[in-house]
Amino acid sequence: MIKRIIFIFCLVLFCSCGTYNSIDTFYNAHKEDDQVTAIRVPRFMLSMIGNISPEMKSLVGNTKDLRYMQFPSATAERTQFLNKQMNGITGSSFIEVYRKNDNLKRNIVSIREKRDAVKEILIYNNNNLNGSFLYFNGNFDPVKVRQMAQNEEFQKLGNGLINQYNMGATPGISSEEINSNQ
What we know:
By secondary structure, the protein is α+β, with helices and mostly antiparallel strands. The protein has eight helices and six strands. The chain has one domain. β3 (95-102) and β4 form a beta hairpin. The radius of gyration is 17 Å and the shape is globular. The termini are far apart. Residues 9-21 and 169-182 have low confidence and may be disordered.
């Protein structure tokens, strides 16, 4: 009986420390770094993001959490470090739908499924100058996610997201102040 309780406790502890919280860990660890743009979209602002394209509108309608981060990656060591961190996040709990490797450059689209729905989408790009990730949590149609990955719609979303925030920014408030309030 005690062994069973210890086993259940260890299992719960292991699951709570697993990769599910790695996006939070990565986001919180790097949002204060120099030259980082970090955006976590509150639910009430998701409708603005839907104006980027009709595909985004249908995708954003099912989103519960949306985050974007862009960070410098100008050295080979930094790029390797970031690539390794992202590989650790996706690890065995995500399914890679798309990957393009060019030396240290990366373009990866990964998903986490539950039954017939995609629950999480993680898009990671690194071009040896800048890295970025785009993260969605919600309920998504797997066919639409695959189409968007093949049509490179997710790559365009990061720029559209920054443009939406810049257009909606309040005069006198810097992007650092917006990021620090996330």
